[in-house]
UniProtKB/TrEMBL annotation:
InterPro entries for this protein: Crypto/Photolyase_FAD-like_sf, Crypto/Photolyase_N_sf, Cryptochr/Photolyase_FAD-bd, Cryptochrome/DNA_photolyase_1, DNA_photolyase_N, Rossmann-like_a/b/a_fold
Names of the cofactor(s): FAD
Region (Disordered): 563-584
Name of the protein this chain belongs to: Photolyase/cryptochrome alpha/beta domain-containing protein
Cofactor binding notes: Binds 1 FAD per subunit.
Alphabetical list of PROSITE patterns matching this protein: PHR_CRY_ALPHA_BETA
Any GO MF annotation of the entry: FAD binding
GO BP of this protein: circadian regulation of gene expression; entrainment of circadian clock by photoperiod
Annotated family: Belongs to the DNA photolyase class-1 family.
Length: 584
């Protein structure tokens, strides 16, 4: 394996000088003999020559005619290129892979690949497409400020990159590590193509606080399945690396000259190209991009007392203005580096009493790290079947119940207001997510958590594969959290932080004239009150889809049986009881 690595490194060095390199182990066996090893001989091949190089277990040959053609090209002044492939990590600050892209002083081509099939088929709602379009525009502006630009390439990555490698004389490609299964499969394909083309691949961690592989290694190859175990592991590992400096300027040699391709070929996508009708969009409450991300971070870090006292469970799920930072969409797209946020928080905490994980702001970053780590190493993490950490629960699919929940028509105003806010704005508070997820699954409707996860995947600005799947398993008591008897009331929970129902009145205006004592349970209002409110229950607003008290009792019994079945199965396999879980 060491010799193979030597060969690969040597191949890359020759490729960077313009040579096409073929490795010995790819030769047909009949062309290779043991006598060729350790040779300094010379063999004629047509008009070219095959040089044997002094390595013990390798032989590299340079194909003469192609070498001459390539060398002539470079003699005529052609320049070598590095591609930095933006996927997530859509920022210039703390971007190790982007820094690696300029290290060799080759021309820099920052690329974003837009797959038309993905645009047409992905579970992405209009708010998130708008956020991405704004983010790409912001990235293009910041790149232009340092003498570059963003090249948006249409097509599948495995199809477009070989042509780019050839057309742009690419010597190296860099990207940020992505731990999602789809991304890993995609990256493996592109890396294979790159190496076949003699292109060096550099992938570096930047989307998480730590390298998830190092977390697993620190845990002796095992996935940490509790928040506390992750805390213990990162305590052993020490603080995450400090952010690398932002790319504030480019070496002259990295700047593309005016004769580079221009025009509309590589332009940013319009909303119409993304399938979005602008007339259907509501107000943009959370503009996308690194500029906005850093501005929001700075604004909150200036509120030192608020940061130090922050406790997630004590924030409000139904305040009219967000009671948290709403930095999650910026972390999801990599507009904001988690390491930058981490070390800014540490600076704010210095010399002050402050809350601790899991409820602190720092604790929220560790929750993110926890789910990323588990998601990166657990097969079928986004589904129940075949998922080793997920309890097998016999959910019952009911399309009517599912649609009522998805479109805010359950007849429970608190639940429907949350789902309406989600569809309109693309963001809801973490505890609001808890309430509607519990309601859909073990609390009231007994629907599969995977179906709720898919709705969130479409509608959330911050839909993040690992966090989305992990939190749905948590809230359905399928994994990580096992106190299934703790059920969020669709009536009482909202009253704790909004007794007058102002949140409901904002998102369900048909109910705005109901008195406070009926706003959470309008079906209990006398008909005269309903008429006075100009909203007849069952006509202008639906009746409750279930009786909460009956549904809760029925589902508690179902959960008890599912847990008993799971316990018996584990006992027969010799497994111990689940570890105690932390408060989230």
């Amino acid at each position: 394996m060491m010799m193979r690595q030597v060969l690969q490194d040597f191949s890359h060095s020759l490729a960077r000088s313009g040579c096409v390199v073929l490795a010995l182990w790819k030769f047909p066996r009949r062309l290779v003999s043991p006598a060729m090893f350790c040779s300094f001989g010379r063999v004629c091949w047509g008009k070219g020559e095959l040089q044997f190089l002094p390595f013990d277990v390798l032989l590299i040959y340079v194909l003469g005619k192609v070498v001459c053609d390539r060398l002539q090209r470079y003699k005529r002044g052609a320049k070598m290129t590095t591609i930095h492939w933006f996927r997530k990590g859509l920022r210039l600050h703390d971007n190790p892979a982007l820094q690696a892209a300029v290290a060799d002083n080759f021309e820099l081509r920052p690329v974003f690949v837009l797959d038309p099939w993905f645009v047409s088929n992905a579970r992405v709602g209009k708010n998130r497409w708008r956020f991405l379009a704004q983010t790409l525009n912001d990235l293009d502006v910041t790149l232009k400020a340092i003498g570059s630009r963003l090249y948006v390439i249409r097509g599948k990555p495995e199809e477009v990159f070989p042509k780019l490698f050839e057309d742009w004389k690419v010597q190296k490609i860099t990207w940020e590590v992505d731990t999602e299964p789809y991304a890993r499969s995609r990256d493996e394909k592109v890396e294979k193509l790159a190496r076949e083309c003699g292109v060096k691949v550099v992938s570096l961690v930047g989307h998480t606080l730590y390298n998830t592989e190092k977390i697993i290694a620190t845990n002796l190859g095992k996935t940490p399945l509790t928040y506390q175990s992750l805390q213990s592991l990162v305590a052993k590992m020490g603080p995450p690396p400090y952010p690398v400096p932002a790319l504030s300027s480019l070496p002259t040699s990295c700047i593309i000259q005016p004769q580079a391709p221009s025009g509309s070929t590589y332009n940013l996508p319009s909303l119409s190209e993304l399938g979005i009708d602008e007339s259907e969009l509501g107000p943009c409450l959370y503009p996308g991009g690194e500029t906005e991300a850093l501005a929001r971070l700075n604004k909150y870090m200036e509120r030192k007392s608020w940061v130090c006292k922050f406790e997630k469970p004590k924030t409000s799920p139904n305040s009219l203005q967000p009671s948290t930072t709403v930095l999650s969409p910026y972390l999801k797209f990599g507009c904001l580096s988690p390491r930058t946020m981490y070390h800014r928080l540490i600076e704010v905490y210095k010399g002050s009493n402050h809350t601790q994980p899991p409820v602190s702001l720092l604790g929220q970053l560790l929750w993110r790290e926890f789910f990323y780590t588990v998601g990166a190493t657990t097969s079928n993490f986004d589904q129940m079947e075949g998922n080793p950490v997920c309890r097998q629960i016999p959910w019952i699919r009911d399309e009517k119940k599912m649609k009522a929940w998805e479109f805010g028509q359950t007849g429970f105003p608190f639940i429907d207001a949350i789902m309406t806010q989600l569809r309109k704005e693309g963001w809801i508070h973490h505890l609001a997510r808890h309430a509607v997820a519990c309601f859909l699954t073990r609390g009231d409707l007994w629907q599969p958590w995977e179906d709720g996860m898919k709705v969130f995947e479409e509608l959330l600005l911050d839909a993040d594969w690992s966090l989305n799947a992990g939190n749905w398993m948590w809230l359905s008591a399928s994994a990580f959290f096992h106190q299934y008897f703790r059920v969020y009331s669709p009536i009482a929970f909202g009253k704790q932080t909004d007794k007058h129902g102002d949140y409901i009145r904002k998102y369900l205006p048909q109910l705005k004239k109901f008195p406070d004592n009926y706003i959470y349970e309008p079906w209990k209002a006398p008909l005269s009150v309903q008429k006075a409110a100009n909203c007849i229950i069952g006509q202008d607003y639906p009746r409750p889809i279930v009786d909460h008290d009956i549904a809760r009792k029925t589902n508690l019994d179902r959960m008890s049986k599912a847990y008993a079945a799971g316990k018996n199965k584990k006992s027969s396999a010799g497994s111990g009881p689940p570890a105690k879980k932390s408060r989230k």
